[in-house]
Design a protein that fits this description.
Blueprint (H helix, E strand, L loop, with lengths): L3 H10 L2 H26 L1 H30 L4 H29 L3 H19 L11 E4 L3 E4 L5 H13 L2 H17 L2 H12 L4 H25 L5 H20 L4 H29 L5 H30 L1 H32 L9
């Protein structure tokens, strides 16, 4: 979150396919080194690798999202994002079980090295994709037709240009405001769900594990359905409806009378999470031209995620003060407010896209 805005310009200034390959290669090395570093330097060394790995993961996600509109073409972003997130969540289900088996049957090195191999496999798949490179210095003719080569601006000028572009786009500020309010409602969830399950619903560790498993299943199912049913032109409206539905299910989840009722609501809530997040990503991809996506996406992500860094550490304190059910009510209100803002502002996004069809490959 903190480093992204400073490095977003690198994504726009390099061949994004090369950037993705490099990110996968470096993450493979870092993952393979985790058990070695742990044995040599203990937890501090692992924390350093985790920090570097998370930076690369964030930049990979931004670069991947930046190049996707050019790769899949016009009108297919929501479908592509839905498919990507479906396989992502299903992979987490399989990977969690596989990781446990590898740890139980092998040693400390086995799961980490197996994980490193998956990054190498990802790189091989990326290598085979016919994705276009990022924009490069072009040539133009001036005066009597002599070609003049345009050079790229410096890194810091590129960084500043990205900020200026974001500053002048009012729909993007509305987009960030909606996301920021929504994150206030999302942030306490990791702490609140534990307390709700164990203290209010009397769930054992098995019961809490059931809720976590259903969360992933719901995310995968929601991603699949929204990818199949929603169109790119409907992204703003579907995002708003997803926020509102998630706000309602969050409220009911907070006051669930039993574990089984909570299980059904967790499944629905996580499904609606995908219903809002996938169109939200597709909407951003459509609004920002290819040349600015790396810089704008990192800034947008940082602004939207800022409340999480503040609210999440305070979640436990808030729950102790007012109770977890009251906190869930406050979460639901924040998410619903974000949905209301999105529903009211959906026409702003639609009019902007009608005037700026940035997602078209010919435009990129």
């Amino acid at each position: 979150m903190l480093v992204g805005p400073l490095l977003g310009a690198f994504i726009d200034r390099t061949n994004r396919k090369v950037f993705l390959l490099l990110s996968d290669g470096l993450r493979a090395i870092l993952t393979a080194l985790i058990p070695v570093v742990f044995l040599l330097y203990g937890l501090p060394g692992v924390l350093l690798i985790t920090l570097l790995h998370s930076i690369l993961t964030q930049l990979f996600a931004v670069a991947y999202a930046s190049v996707l509109p050019d790769a899949v073409g016009e009108g297919r972003l929501t479908s592509a994002n839905g498919l990507i997130h479906t396989t992502l969540h299903l992979g987490r289900i399989v990977g969690s079980g596989l990781g446990g088996i590898l740890m139980a049957t092998g040693n400390i090195f086995t799961p980490f090295w197996a994980n490193a191999v998956t990054f190498l496999l990802s790189g091989l798949l990326i290598l085979g994709l016919p994705w276009p490179p990022s924009l490069k210095p072009s040539t133009r003719r001036e005066g009597k037709g002599n070609p003049v080569r345009e050079t790229r601006p410096s890194y810091f000028k590129s960084l500043w240009e990205g900020f200026l572009y974001l500053r002048d786009q009012k729909p993007l500020w509305l987009y960030m405001a909606i996301g920021l309010v929504g994150t206030i409602g999302f942030a306490p969830a990791p702490v609140a769900l534990v307390i709700l399950a164990k203290e209010e619903l009397g769930a054992s560790s098995v019961g809490y594990s059931l809720l976590q498993a259903l969360t992933t299943v719901g995310l995968a199912a929601g991603a699949f359905l929204v990818g199949r049913a929603a169109q790119d032109r409907q992204a703003a409206t579907v995002m708003a409806l997803g926020y509102l539905a998630m706000g309602i299910t969050t409220l009911f989840l907070g006051w669930a009378p039993s574990l089984w009722v909570a299980a059904g609501l967790v499944l629905l809530r996580s499904g609606f999470n995908s219903v809002l997040s996938i169109p939200r990503l597709s909407l951003l991809q459509q609004m920002v031209p290819s040349a600015y996506r790396g810089r704008v996406f990192t800034w947008v992500s940082t602004v939207i995620e800022l409340p999480r860094a503040i609210v999440l550490p305070l979640a436990g304190v808030l729950i102790d003060l007012v109770g977890v059910r009251v906190v869930y009510t406050a979460m639901a209100i924040a998410i619903a407010v974000a949905g209301g803002l999105a529903f009211q502002g959906r026409h702003v996004f639609e009019r902007y896209l009608a005037r700026h069809p940035h997602h078209s490959p010919s435009q990129a």
